[in-house]
Amino acid sequence: MSFTLAIVGRPNVGKSTLFNRLVGKRLALVDDQPGVTRDLREGAARLGDLRFTVIDTAGLEDATDDSLQGRMRRLTERAVDMADVCLFMIDARTGITPTDQIFAEILRKRAKHVILAANKAEGRAADAGVIEAYSLGLGEPLRMSAEHGEGMGDLLAELMPLAEEFEEQAEETAPDTDVTLSEEEAEEGIADLRWPTPEKPMQIAVVGRPNAGKSTLINKLLGEDRLLTGPEAGITRDAISLQVDWDGLPVRIWDTAGMRKKARVQDKVEKLSVADGLRAVKFAEVVIVLLDAAIPFEQQDLRIADLAEREGRAVVVAVNKWDVEDEKQQKLRDLKEAFARLLPQLRGAPLVTVSAKTGRGLDRLREAVERAYTVWNTRVPTAQLNRWLTGMVEAHPPPAPQGRRIKLRYMTQAKTRPPGFVVMSSHPDKMPDSYTRYLVNGLRESFDMPGTPIRLYMRGQGDRNPYKGRREKNAGALTKHLKKKKG
Q1: What range defines the domain where residue 395 resides?
Q2: In what order do the strands lie in the sheet with 408-416?
C-alpha cells in the first residue's frame, strides 16, 4: 500500500458509497439516513493501477463536547492527522453549507493534501453546487457520482502524482533489509557496514505497552518536550517520526502508540494506532522494546518482541522506571532469567535498565543500539562457516530418518540485515526444527551474534558443491591464459 486516503465530509454526502466502490465490496453500511457510519473503517482500495489504503470516516458534525457527535468528530480529526491524503466530499445538489466551510478551514490547517470532490454531481441540478464549491478555497472540485461510478478517472488522475511522491518518500526512508550477498562477498565475508549518516540515519522504533514511558524517553533524548506525555495510558495515538543526533549517532526515531491485547483494544482510534505502530516496526532497523520495571514481560510485551524478531529487526530490550525500583540487583537477576526463558529466539539480545524521567542509563542504551545494529550487519566468510559446520556435525550429527542419515554438504551466508545462511543438505525436508535451532544457537555463540534474528535455510543440492573445484578451475584458466599470451 503506497499511501492512505481518508474520505471526510458532512453526514450523508456519500462517503461510505465511495469507500465501498474503492474497496470493491459492500463493507460499509449505506443508508439515506445521516450518521449511519460511526466508527473508522479501513480497507484495501484499488483504482486503476493504484493500490492504497482508504479510511471511511464518520460524518463531520459541528460538535466539540463529549456527546456521540463530538466523539465522532474527534475520531475523524484523528483520521485526518494520520492520512496522507484527504478527500473532502460535499453534496453538489445541496450546495455549500456553513458546516462545509468550517471543516474546509480545519482541513486547510491539518491535512497534508486535500482533494475536493463534489458528489452526486450527475445532471444539471448539481451545476450550481459545483460552481459554489470553488468558494471553499481548496482548488477545483472533482465532479463525481460515487453511486454510479462517474468521475473515478478524474480521481485517479489527481492521485497518481501524489502516489509517485509517496513512493519516492517510502524508498528514501525504507531500511535496506534482507540484503543479498554476491558469491564473492559470501566467500570472503567482506565487511561492508553502512554506518548511518544524517542523510540516511539509523531508523529506530520505540514500542511497548501503553504508559511504559516511550514518549518520555524520546523527549529526554531530544532534550525538549516535543511529545505529549502524562500519567494516563494511551496518550500517543499515531507513530511520530523525529530525527535527532544521539551523541554523534544520526537516528530517525519513531514514537509509537502503546500496543495492548487485541481484546482490550475497543477504542477505534487505538485500533488504527496499533496498526500504525506495527508499520513503524516494519520501517525500523533497530526496535527498542520498552518495558515497565513494575510489570515486565507481560504477554503483550512478548508478542511485540516476537513481532520485531519475525520482521527480522535488531532488538534491544529496555526496562524503564528503574529509578523507583528498590531491590535493583535481585530485580535485574529475575529480569535476565525471565528474558532467557520467555524469549529464547532473542537469546543474548541486550537488556538495559533506564530511567526516561531522569536520563539514567541512556548512554548504555545508545551503546546497546549501536552494538545490535553492528551485529545485524554481520558477515561470516564461507571458509570459516564450513569449518564450523564440520565441527558442529562431528559434535552432534544430524538425525537418520528411516535409517538414512541427513548429510550437510556445504554452507554459505546468502544475506545480511539480518544474517541469513543457506545449508546444502541431502534431505532438507526431513530436517527437524530442533537441529536447525542447534545450528542457529551455535552460530550465535561461535560468531558473536547475540540477540539478532538469524535466518537458516535448508536446501537440497544432491552431491554438487557449487564452490567445489572453483580454485582449481580458476588456476587452470589463468595458466591457459598465460600460455596463450606467451605463445
Answers
A1: 177-191+377-487
A2: 179-180, 408-416, 420-425, 455-460
Q: Is 58 annotated as a binding residue?
A: yes
- Residues 356, 383 within the same domain: no
CATH code for position 106: 3.40.50.300
Residue 441 assigned to a binding site: no
- Give Cα 285 to chain centroid, integer Å: 10
386 is in an annotated binding site: no
Residue 258 among known ligand-binding residues? yes
Q: How many domains does the chain have?
A: 3
Asked if residue 438 and residue 347 are part of one domain, the reply reads no
Could you tell me if 241 and 363 lie in one domain? yes
Residue 109 marked ligand-binding: no
* HEC-encoded secondary structure of 157-176: HHHHHHHHHHHHHHHHHCCC
pLDDT tens over the chain, length 487 residues: 478 898 988 888 888 889 989 988 665 444 444 443 334 677 889 999 898 988 887 666 555 555 555 655 666 676 777 788 999 999 999 999 988 888 888 888 888 899 999 999 988 888 999 999 999 999 999 999 999 999 999 999 999 998 888 777 666 666 778 788 877 777 776 655 678 888 888 999 888 877 788 878 888 887 755 444 444 333 333 445 678 889 899 998 876 654 444 444 344 433 444 455 566 687 789 999 899 998 888 877 787 788 888 889 999 999 999 998 888 999 999 999 999 899 888 888 999 999 999 999 999 999 999 999 999 999 999 999 999 999 999 999 998 887 888 999 999 999 999 999 999 998 898 899 999 999 999 999 999 998 899 999 999 865 455 555 555 555 566 566 556 655 5
Instruction: Report residue 193 as a C-alpha cell.
Output: 557496514
Same domain, residue pair 267 and 252: yes
Residue 340 and residue 381 share a domain: no
* Cβ–Cβ under 8 Å, residues 347 and 450: yes
Q: 14 a known binding residue?
A: yes
Q: Is residue 9 a known part of a binding site?
A: yes
The CATH number given to whatever domain includes residue 438 is: 3.30.300.20
451 is in an annotated binding site: no
Consult the annotation and say whether 259 binds a ligand.
yes
- 415 is an annotated ligand-binding site residue: no
The string of DSSP codes covering 193-226 is -----SSSPEEEEEE-STTSSHHHHHHHHHTS--
Residues 272 and 229 grouped into a single domain: yes
152 is in an annotated binding site: no
**122 annotated ligand-binding residue:** yes
C-alpha span between 80 and 113 (Å, rounded): 10
465 is in an annotated binding site: no
214 in the same domain as 124: no
